[in-house]
Amino acid sequence: MFTRISIFKHPAKNITVNKNLFIDIILGIIKCQDKQQHTSQKSFRKRLQVAVEKLHHQTLDIRLQGITELEKLANYHGQENWEIMEVITAFVRQNSLYRTNQEVKSQSSSKIHPDIQAALQILTKTDTPKSLASEQLDLSYTDLRGANLSSGNLAGVNLYQANLSGVNMAGANLSGAILCAANLSQANLVGANLAEAIISAANLSGANLAKANLTKANFYLANLSQTNLQDAILEGANFREAKFSG
User: Fold this and answer.
1) What's residue 18's pLDDT?
2) What's the pLDDT at 212?
3) How far apart are CA 60 and CA 172, in angstroms?
4) In 3-state terms, what secondary structure has residue 163?
5) Distance between CA 155 and CA 211 in Å, rounded?
6) Helices vs strands, H then E, count in the chain
7) Strand partners, 243
8) Which of helix, strand or coil describes residue 97?
9) 203 to each of 70, 165, 220, 234, 244, how far by Cα in Å?
10) Domain count of the chain?
11) Which of 158, 159, 189, 215 could form a disulfide with 195 if both were Cys (CB 3.0 to 4.6 A apart)?
C-alpha cells in the first residue's frame, strides 16, 4: 500500500508565507531604489558644486569646462534641469551686465565672450520639461551684443531692457518673450517666431524681421524706423503709437 502525502497540508499557512515573502521582496526593491536615488542625488550635488566652482575660475578654459559639465548634468539629470538652467542664467547675468549708451560707445568691441556664448547655447538649446513650462528664464538687463542665438529656443524668456543690438536671432523661437525696452537695433530676426511677444517701447530700428511670425505681438511705442517687415505675419499685432520713420 502507498500512503498519499499531500503537499497542501497547510494551504492557509502556505498562502501567508508566500504573501509575506512577496511583501519582503517589494520592500527590498523599494529600499534598494531609495538607496540608489540617494546615491544619485549625492553624486549630482557633488558634480554640480564642482561645476559651479569652475564657473567662477579666472581661467577661460576652466570656465568652459564648468559649462560643459553643467550641460552634461542637464542631459543626465532631467529632473534637476531647471536648477541647472538657473545656475547658467545667473552666470550670464553676472558676467554680461547691461551697459549705458555711453559705456557701449566707449567699448571698442562688441564681441561676446566665448564662455557667455557657450552658456547661451545651452540655455537656448536645452528642452525644458513640460512640468517646468510655466517657469521663466531671466536674462533682463543683460548685454548680449555679438551673441549668436540663431534657431535658439527663447520662448517666454525675460529679456526686459536687454541689449540685443546686432544679435543674430534668425529662426529663433521668441514666442511670448518679454522684450520691453530692449535694444534690438540692427538685429537679425529673419524667420523668427515672435508670436505674442511683448516688445513695447523696444528699439528695432534697422532690424530685419522679414518672414517673422509677429502674430499678436505687442509693439506699442516701439521704434520700427527702417525695420524690414517684408513677408512678416502681422495678424493681430499691436502697432499702436509705434514709430515707423525718423
Assistant:
1) 58
2) 99
3) 27
4) strand
5) 18
6) 5, 0
7) 223
8) strand
9) 34, 9, 11, 18, 11
10) 2
11) 215
Size of the chain, expressed as the number of residues it contains: 246
Query: Where among 67, 91, 118 does a domain terminate?
Result: 118
Tell me the whole-structure pTM to 2 decimals: 0.79
pLDDT of amino acid 17: 52
CB 126 within 8 A of CB 101: no
Same domain, 94 and 148: no
**What are the mean pLDDT values of the chain's consecutive 10-residue runs (246 residues total)?**
50 55 56 56 85 93 96 81 91 86 56 95 73 76 97 96 97 98 98 98 98 98 98 98 88
CA 233 – CA 223 distance, rounded (Å): 18
Could you report how far apart the first and last alpha carbons of the chain are, in Å?
Answer: 117
CA distance 35 to 90: 32
Q: State the residue range of the domain holding 81.
A: 17-118
Residues facing residue 209 across a β-bridge: none
Task: Report which residue type is found at 228.
Answer: N
